[in-house]
Write a structure and sequence with these properties.
The complex is a heterodimer of chains A (about 325) and B (about 625).
Chain A (H helix, E strand, L loop, with lengths): L18 H4 L12 H15 L6 E5 L14 E4 L5 H11 L4 E7 H7 L1 H10 L3 E7 L2 E2 L5 E2 L23 H6 L6 E6 L3 H13 L3 E7 L7 H8 L5 E5 L8 H6 L3 E3 L5 H9 L4 E8 L7 H4 L7 H13 L4
Helix pairs in contact in A: 2-7, 3-5, 4-5
Chain B lengths: L13 E2 L2 E8 L5 H14 L3 E7 L15 E8 L12 E4 L3 H8 L8 E5 L8 H16 L3 E5 L1 H6 L5 H16 L4 H11 L5 H21 L4 E2 L11 E5 H12 L3 E4 L6 H10 L6 E4 L3 H13 L5 E4 L1 H16 L4 E7 L16 H6 L8 E4 L3 H17 L3 E7 H5 L1 E5 L46 E3 L13 H19 L7 E2 L4 E8 L3 H13 L4 E6 L1 E3 L5 H5 L2 E8 L20 H10 L4 E4 L8 H16 L1
Parallel strand pairs in B: 1-8, 2-5, 5-6, 6-7, 10-11, 12-13, 13-15, 14-15, 19-20, 19-22, 22-23
Antiparallel strand pairs in B: 2-4, 3-4, 9-16, 14-21, 18-20
Helix pairs in contact in B: 1-5, 1-6, 5-7, 6-7, 8-9, 8-13, 10-11, 16-19
The chains are: A alpha/beta (about 325), B alpha/beta (about 625).
Chain lengths: ~325, ~625
């Protein structure tokens, strides 16, 4: 153009999206709730990746976590308790080009929605699955959740939780075709951003368990971890998630972990004396179900009609 | 139609206009395949045909047990056949024990011809010999005309494994008995075994031929059933109702069926799994019933209206999320192939027990469209209609069929689909952001739907009470308005429906109201009563929610109105039952509430299709009681 080398010309976006384009209604989580930070991270990632809001769908179930679609300036689907994943998978099935996010919680995903959690990991459809895990049912006011620690006092177990908690990491890592498992705490914003961004960029289901503060019902759980950062194990690797200096200052326990090593990831997940943060496992080559479910979306009406007539002809007498 | 090439008159063959044939066996002996083929051959020869499968609940029930009876009934005739009829004229049985369950169902009469495998007579187990002898004496005593035949022995001349091959041998026998064209039978066999080797096809052709010759030599029994005259030049197809459902999905342009295996619905998905890719579609087998409908709702929400197919227990599991689709106004087609309930009930047998659950199953008010197919042909066309209704009215549509339609086979005019039948491409035009996502028309409740991908169309769908902006709203006015608008859509749809046609005179003594698969049996019973001079008519409903208009007016022209259904109602003569506490059958319940007419009912839960003779008797009794 005008004798200029096209490679030098400035790339100008036809539409440029700002954080404001991804913001929905004002977030009405409690002050001090970890969910605010997660929402901010998601807004930033969408802005940084310049995903058009109209092709983004945020799907949720029921619970505090599942209010998230209301605070997004994208398409949202605030559905039923436990059923976010079948809806999200269905959306993806014939519209694989949509950018699908699922926000769910420990009760929503690991209790009432357990079957869908297991099978969605197996389907491995390309979506970002954020589990806001505060170890308690918040919206219904303090009942035991599957990740409540033993002895944690709730309204359903006033004497303390009577069963040891379910381990979401080791369960997820045990599911056939699992392709991305990460864990992070909400009070480390740079790491939170990087972990969710990596999950979003991953082709497949990016499962992120976010250990999240609930200042009202389970403050003691996150406080004890915040006050004892040595219990946190920061996972680092050249093929892992970029970790900045602030995260390293926050969590001094750091180990090298190759995210392509599933056995090592399972071992780390099994050790409940530590809380690993960072990327446990990533397999970019795991097959995604939508490559099968979306077959034939491109068929023209004429082609469909020809197929239908051929089918009818087989029964013609 | 190949009728022209057929009937050179067969001498000796007795001319009949209708016959009911059964093949009854242990499970896995191929009776259904033989019967379906016999039905197809008869349809291709121009006869009216209706087939009903007799299916045990177990895959491999114990051999030689009445509960394990597996088989098929084929009713063929010289006119259009709409139901399974009354008692059989001829039955082929592979052992005597399975016949007991059919006898318990009133399937035979004095004069029914029985062709029975006679190897049991010389069975090495003395007890079996004795059972056989006892049973045959009993059958003869009851008037069955028994022919004992060495079926397996005759098959063994063709194949070392007669257990597998004798069904095609029996097909050959039936082809001789009913003067069928062997060429057509051969070509049907080639189609059935198209995935098997040439050798398998050839073996079955030889078994067919052998059975044909065996019947000619050993039985003095031959009939001729002339073809229907009224079929004309139209092209016909033969399918069962579940295949019709699958074809309907393809003809509707829906690209996704999301299902979880459940009897008797699953074979619709089996059919689709085989061919859906040819029209660019996909069958998703979900992890459970809830996930199956959830996946379909996700697809529908994203612009591709999807279908989920289930039966009663699946409907129960889907209830909560079905209400979400109502609440958030997501189009969806939910096909329910009804079976006997409640709970696991009668998985393989027919009932019309899910009508009220379909209309009222959800907590709160969840108005949705509910339609019921009355014929196998309607199983196909109603899917096409349901998809369009779902999108136009932005609502789930429940399409009811049942086990009788699902496995019954019948010839019907081949649909001639056009591109208008198919779903339009997803609308991805820009959405005017000043238009709310539920821009309800105040009169009809209808509104256009933003779809992901539309610039400016984004909104947050929610199952919570919401405003027209889809904003969560717990205030009184918003909730009332939302409920009004969703309900109003049914009134708008009802306004487009015509009153149902009355079968028979538009006025008289007794009006029978039915719905679903009982259409043919009810109309045949009405015909018989009318031939006797009784003033009986019938009405058959396809739309159950909203109900078809004009019912009260139609009812007012009859002295008495009653429904005939296959679901539970208290017999008014039963102990403790009074007019105050009597529980009515489901359609009667609905009609009484809606029309304030004192609609009576007769219904049974026998796990079997209604026979016209049974209904005829009921009509005569009710007429007699009206005189008294």
């Amino acid at each position: 153009m005008f004798g200029m080398n096209a490679d030098w010309s400035l790339e100008v976006f036809e539409r440029y999206f700002t954080i404001g384009d991804y913001a929905g209604g004002e977030a009405r989580w409690c002050p001090g709730c970890g969910d605010h930070g997660i929402l901010t991270a998601v807004h930033k990632i969408l802005r940084d990746e310049q995903i058009p809001p109209e092709t983004t769908v945020c799907v949720s179930g029921i619970g505090c976590s599942s209010r998230m679609p209301h605070y997004m300036g994208t398409f949202g689907f605030h559905g039923l308790h436990g059923r976010a994943l079948p809806i999200a998978c269905g959306i993806k099935s014939r519209r694989p080009e949509l950018d699908v996010w699922v926000s769910t919680g420990d009760g929503d995903c690991f209790s009432i929605g357990t079957a869908h959690w297991i099978h969605a990991i197996r389907y491995n459809m390309d979506m970002t699955l954020l589990v806001f895990d505060n170890g308690v049912y918040g919206l219904t006011k303090k009942q035991t959740s599957p990740t409540s620690p033993l002895g944690f006092k709730t309204n359903t177990h006033p004497g303390g939780a009577i069963l040891p908690p379910l381990n979401p990491l080791s369960v997820t890592l045990g599911i056939t075709n699992v392709s991305f498992v990460a864990q992070v705490v909400d009070w480390s914003p740079p790491l939170l951003y990087e972990v969710i961004k990596a999950a979003h960029r991953h082709k497949g289901t990016g499962f992120v368990r976010i250990i999240q503060r609930c200042p009202v019902f389970s403050d003691s759980l996150s406080k004890s971890l915040q006050n004892d950062p040595d219990r946190v194990l920061l996972l680092q690797h050249e093929n892992g998630i970029p970790i900045d200096a602030s995260a390293k200052r926050q969590f001094s326990n750091l180990i090298e972990h190759d995210p392509s090593d599933l056995s090592a990831a399972r071992e780390i997940a099994q050790d409940v004396s530590r809380v690993p943060v960072g990327l446990l496992y990533r397999n970019p080559d795991a097959p995604c179900y939508e490559t099968l479910t979306s077959r034939g979306v491109e068929f023209t009406a004429r082609k469909r009609l020809a197929g239908l007539n051929a089918a009818l002809d087989r029964f013609t007498i | 139609m190949e009728a022209s090439q057929v009937v050179e008159t067969v001498p000796r063959a007795e001319l009949i206009h209708e016959h009911i044939v059964e093949i009854v066996s242990d499970s896995g002996e191929g009776a259904q395949k033989a019967g379906q083929t016999f039905g197809s051959v008869s349809a291709r020869m121009g006869n009216g045909v209706w087939t009903v499968e007799i299916i045990p609940a177990e895959i491999k029930p114990p051999a030689r047990s009445p509960a394990g009876a597996s088989g098929i009934r084929i009713r063929l005739g010289s006119k259009h056949i709409t139901n399974m009829g009354d008692q059989a004229d001829l039955v082929v049985a592979f052992n005597e024990q399975v016949l007991y369950s059919r006898i318990a169902n009133g399937a035979y009469k004095s004069g029914t011809v029985l062709l029975i495998e006679n190897k049991w007579r010389n069975d090495p187990v003395a007890e079996i010999q004795a059972q056989y002898d006892r049973a045959l004496a009993e059958f003869r005593e009851n008037g069955l005309i028994v022919h004992e035949l060495p079926l397996e022995e005759a098959c063994r001349e063709i194949t070392p494994n007669p257990l597998v091959g004798k069904n095609m041998f029996v097909l050959g026998m039936l082809c001789h008995i009913y003067s069928r064209d062997l060429e057509i039978a051969r070509s049907e066999i080639s189609i059935i075994f198209k995935r098997k080797s040439e050798k398998v096809v050839e073996l079955n052709h030889r078994l067919l031929q052998a059975g044909y010759e065996f019947a000619r030599e050993s039985l003095d029994l031959q009939y001729q059933v002339p073809p229907q005259v009224e079929q004309g030049q139209k092209r016909f197809i033969v399918t069962n109702g579940n295949t019709a459902l699958g074809l309907g999905v393809m003809a509707s342009g829906m690209e996704l069926v999301s299902m979880y295996p459940i009897t008797p619905a699953t074979s619709a998905s089996h059919y689709l799994a085989d061919v859906f890719h040819e029209v660019g579609g996909f069958v998703h087998q979900a992890e459970d019933e809830i996930a199956a409908i959830g996946f379909a709702i996700g697809s529908s929400y994203a612009g591709k209206t999807a279908c989920t197919i289930t039966s009663g227990p699946g409907l129960a599991l889907k209830t909560e999320i079905l209400a979400l689709a109502v609440m958030a106004e997501i189009p969806l087609v939910l096909a329910i192939v009804q079976r006997g309930g409640p709970s696991t009930g009668l998985p393989t047998k027919v009932e019309q027990g899910d009508l009220l659950a379909s209309i009222f199953g959800e907590p709160g008010d969840a108005p949705k469209v509910v339609v019921a197919a009355a014929t196998i042909e309607e199983c196909l066309h109603f899917v096409v209609m349901s998809r369009r209704l779902a999108e136009t009215f932005r609502t789930p549509v429940v399409l009811l069929t049942d086990a009788n339609l699902a496995t019954g086979q019948q010839p019907y005019p081949r649909p001639e689909p056009s591109t208008e039948w198919l779903a339009p491409p997803i609308d991805q035009t820009e959405w005017d952001p000043t238009v709310p996502p539920y821009d309800w028309d105040a009169e009809t409740g209808l509104s256009p739907r933003p779809i992901p991908g539309m610039v400016g169309g984004h909104y947050v769908l929610t199952g919570l009470a919401h405003t027209n902006e889809s904003k969560v709203a717990y205030d009184s006015k918003s909730n009332q308005l939302g409920c009004d608008m969703r309900s109003r859509k049914l009134a708008a749809l009802a306004g487009t429906l015509k009153p149902p046609k009355v079968y028979g005179d538009p006025e008289g003594e007794l009006l029978v109201v039915g719905w679903g698969s009982t259409l043919g049996a009810i109309e045949e019973a009405v015909d018989r009563a009318r031939e006797q001079g009784h003033k009986v008519s019938s009405v058959h409903l396809r739309f159950l929610s909203p109900l078809e208009p004009g019912l009260k007016q139609i009812f007012s022209r009859f002295r008495k109105v009653m429904t005939v259904e296959i679901n539970y109602s208290d017999d008014p003569a039963a102990p403790l039952i009074t007019p105050d506490n009597r529980r009515y059958s489901q359609l009667a319940w609905l009609l009484r509430a809606q029309t304030l007419v004192d609609v009576d009912c007769w219904s049974v839960v026998l796990g079997a299709p209604l026979q016209p003779g049974m209904i005829h008797q009921v009509l005569l009794q009710r007429l007699a009681s009206m005189e008294g």
